[in-house]
Amino acid sequence: MTSTLHVDVIENEIDVALRTGFVKDSRLVARRLSPMDFLTCVSPRYLEVHGVPRCADDFQQHSWIGFRIKETQQLQPIFLPNAKGEYLPYVLERTHITDDGEAMAHMCVDGMGFAQLPHFLAKLGLQSGTLVSLFPYYRPPQPDNGVFAIYPKREYLPAKVRVFIEFMASSLEAAGEGTNYTWAENWVPVVNFPV
Known about the structure:
By secondary structure, this protein is of the alpha+beta class.
């Protein structure tokens, strides 16, 4: 078994893979392990140097780290809450762009700007204090968006695949996550203001 991204599971004879986003291949089974929540993060050091944004216009004056989706080459949109708390797409210039989520998280920790990070990439930084979040979590409305265990369709699921998936599900549950919730739902942002 292996955990990998962006390879053909069938062609490479992979037993099970962990993927985020949307799963479109009809030859595969996708078991959702959790939703994918996003948090608007920044390092405390960045805020000390550049100040805390107080309104929507302030964000135009700040550096943003963008994520380029490898499959489509599109930039991941940025969603920020309005005065009613509804998340809407927001057009911001990205100062830095990467197609590697872990690199994006490290860039954010290193004080290179704001980033909208998936909850699983933001968690360590938020818990250690090397990152802070500005708003409550944002969850994309698409029901098929999340973190999935992916495996080939078969008449019988091999025991090793079933055991691995159950292990992953129980490990996530112990960490405060399930098929319909993540720990991010209970995370309290340090700054929460309408944009």
